[in-house]
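ESCALATION

Customer reports they have been waiting on this structure for their group meeting. Please prioritize. Original submission:
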Amino acid sequence: MSDVVESISSKSRDMAQVEALLEQEGIRLDGNLDYTCGIFDDDGKLIATGSCFQNTLRCLAVSGSHQGEGLMNRIVSHLTEYQAMRGNFRLFLYTKVKASKFMSDLGFYEIARVDGKLVFMENRRNGFAGYCANLAKIRRDGERIGAIVMNANPFTLGHRHLVEQAAAENDVVHLFVLSEEAGPIPFAVRKQLVQAGVADLPNVVCYDSDAYMISSATFPSYFLKDADEVIQTQAALDLAVFEKIAKTLGIQRRYVGEEPNSHTTSLYNQVMAKQMPQMGLECCIIPRLCTNGQIISASTVRQAIHDGQLEAVRDMLPPSTYAYFAGAEGEKTVAALKAATNLIHH
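Update from on-call: job pushed to the front of the queue and completed.
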């Protein structure tokens, strides 16, 4: 057996072996991978593999006939070194519950779990605890405290409507903007437009989500059986993390927008509506805002900008968002949107 952990090109014939080994261990090949490696036996058969996507480790597997030989340790060490080479020192992974103890032994620490499904882990002992401690330092108290988590891709009048509703019903609203870079509109721009769009609401406080509020781009689907289970498990894990943040900030309720046209968001909302009361939290689902009989949608705005039709969606945007995309400051972002080939999931 070779001692070498080899990189495997996504176009290599060896990817068929990667897929077969993963399937053997009850894992599907993830669609979001940017690096894959493996260990082969003396006959050229793949016996261990692992991959990365951004700052996550994923698709980790060792052949059943070679478990207990330290192969996973070597795969994780290799991936950690590879990530360090490209500047990623904070690493995250999702693993099956039964494998979480082993990953703990390799230097990963639990953030949250969905029992029977998966565990979300990171390689910093006090990473999530430190994030919560920093939130606690800037905590603002009140009798009624709400929260919103949004991608705001970009910030529309629909988002503004949701924030206004929460602001009117609470003394403090904690507004978390998903920090992950997962599309042509950079996080810094998304956050800038959110802050500009709510600047007149003094009881709204904006935060970065850091890596702890989970987006569909980083959430793994590779060891869950079907699309609905992926959505339901992601929602449950998101809530397990959010529950801890809510306790830190004294949050009592979370506001989400109704989504009649998206099965994914609708199912996500159903999970939240069912599970949040069990956590002592209220789930407030707010009807979507419409203009000229059309639901205001960030994806509609992105498509219009892609097509050079910003004016067509002007009535969906706060003045600050429109000004950004119409002006010189937004030229690079507009160019990125026009060059994008898939705007539905970004």
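Sent to customer with the following note: The chain has eleven helices and 14 strands.
Escalation resolved.
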